[in-house]
Amino acid sequence: MTKGTTVDSPKKAPKTFFVQNYGCQMNVYDGERMADQFAAQGMTSSSKDDADLIVLNTCHIREKAAEKVYSEIGRVGKKRKQANGAQPMIAVAGCVAQAEGAEISRRSPSVDIVVGPQAYHKLPEMIAGVAAGKRGLDLDLPGLDKFDVLPKKRKSGPTAFLTVQEGCDKFCTYCVVPYTRGAEISRSWSALIDEAKALVDGGAKEITLLGQNVNAWTGEDDSGNAVGLEDLIRALDRISGLARIRYVTSHPNDMTDGLIAAHGDVEKLMPYLHLPVQAGSDRILKAMNRSHSADSYRRIIDAVRKIRPDIAISGDFIVGFPGESDGDFEDTMRLVEYINYASAYSFKYSPRPGTPAATMADQVAPQIMDERLQRLQQLLGQQQYEFNRSVIGQSCDILLERKGKYEGQLIGKSPWLQSTHVDMPGLKIGDMVRVQINEAGYSSVTGDVLMQAAA
Ligand code: 5AD
Ligand code: SF4
């Protein structure tokens, strides 16, 4: 339900908009859909300095992310449009909105709209409300409504996100997601196939399936059979014009044999798996309520590698979870040594209000967290560098996504999700090129173009 309170000086109905995304790729997808919706209403996208409407699509996962949002709310609250000095309409969307909604309205009078991640299809109504003098607040978690209401036609760049599943029922004890995104809900098979086809018609050559627990996706196919993510991937594999499929983020417990098998025989499924483990100590994993062990994680990775030996493994780590001892941390280091990651994200534990871990005894001292994070990141960085070096001399296809720093340079992704720089006149964004990798750094590789590959 959209609630409203009267404001003193109503702002004009916006003609231009700017969406600023924070946090995960699900927010990027949501931000794109908001933009589609505004465009369908006749609004045009504009710079942050001149937009009539600024949407901050926020992230609440760690304290730092939420702090960034608050300082940005302060900054845009004082903002005047460069063109005419008027104050833009300001909407706060996403997970900070969901977690701290009413508080934002109270603390920041310049914010006109607060809208949770499941309610942004109601933005047009809320914007009209503000123009009529009412501030808007909507934090309902109604499930799938927003996907039904949003515009179906999609224009796309060469790479596109497709949210297949939202929310989380896992309740890891450190995590806000089950509270900000709600329960696990899967979108329907037919909606996803239709949207994937529309994305390919609109220009996408690569689709990344998104979900907080993407591999928990379940549904029914057109014949009424119960299906899982691997079946969806196999159906997308049959869409002509689509060259690559990825999915992110997965939970070890939902890594089924069928999904593992797909890595062995689905041609378009890229050799990359992001599988967060968080920690290598079973005691800490239990306290985190992860419901897998270090060993069961190792066995999943072994199984995937058996079927797809070149697969790039990526993960997420938290150091300094309450009660983590030196020995527990060494278990994490040992696990990392065993797995040998191609890339990874690692964070200091950040207590999130309302989560069970925030009030656990034995919170780890900041200095110890710093030292552990530094050691972990050094090891992960070294592994990433070595993985990048391991592809030198190999030929592979690169899907060009954006311009590089230098004239004529373009950047794309290798099958293993490495940023790859190529330099050759005549190429353009969206081209798929055959490249031989000739140089590797910590965060990217460089290739010589051999020829334009068939998409
Ligand atoms: N503190 C630190 N990191 C966290 N993550 C989630 N919650 C927290 C927290 N409270 C990390 C996890 C997750 C990633 C998206 O963010 O590693 O996989
Ligand atoms: Fe958060 Fe755990 Fe759910 Fe991932 S699986 S979104 S870390 S609660």
From TrEMBL:
Enumerate the spans annotated as TRAM domain: 389-451
UniProt binding sites for [4Fe-4S] cluster 2: C168, C172, C175
Q: Which CDD domains match?
A: Radical_SAM
Q: Where in the cell is it found?
A: Cytoplasm
Cofactor, free-text remark = Binds 2 [4Fe-4S] clusters. One cluster is coordinated with 3 cysteines and an exchangeable S-adenosyl-L-methionine.
Record key words, sorted: 4Fe-4S, Cytoplasm, Iron, Iron-sulfur, Metal-binding, S-adenosyl-L-methionine, Transferase, tRNA processing
Residues annotated for [4Fe-4S] cluster 1 binding in this entry: C24, C59, C95
Provide any one GO MF term from the record: tRNA-2-methylthio-N(6)-dimethylallyladenosine(37) synthase activity
| Record field: catalytic activity | N(6)-dimethylallyladenosine(37) in tRNA + (sulfur carrier)-SH + AH2 + 2 S-adenosyl-L-methionine = 2-methylsulfanyl-N(6)-dimethylallyladenosine(37) in tRNA + (sulfur carrier)-H + 5'-deoxyadenosine + L-methionine + A + S-adenosyl-L-homocysteine + 2 H(+)
EC nos: 2.8.4.3
Record's InterPro entries?
A: Elp3/MiaA/NifB-like_rSAM, Methylthiotransferase, Methylthiotransferase_CS, Methylthiotransferase_N, Methylthiotransferase_N_sf, MiaB_methiolase, rSAM, rSAM_horseshoe
Residues covered by the Radical SAM core domain: 154-386
Q: What is its main location?
A: cytoplasm
MTTase N-terminal domain location is 15-132
Essential cofactor(s): [4Fe-4S] cluster
In UniProt terms, what function does this protein have?
Catalyzes the methylthiolation of N6-(dimethylallyl)adenosine (i(6)A), leading to the formation of 2-methylthio-N6-(dimethylallyl)adenosine (ms(2)i(6)A) at position 37 in tRNAs that read codons beginning with uridine.
NCBIfam families, per the entry? miaB-methiolase, MiaB/RimO family radical SAM methylthiotransferase
Task: Describe the subunit structure.
Answer: Monomer.
**Family recorded in the similarity comment:** Belongs to the methylthiotransferase family. MiaB subfamily.
User: Under what name is this protein listed?
Assistant: tRNA-2-methylthio-N(6)-dimethylallyladenosine synthase
Q: What is the lineage of its organism?
A: Bacteria, Pseudomonadati, Pseudomonadota, Alphaproteobacteria, Sphingomonadales
> Gene symbol?
miaB
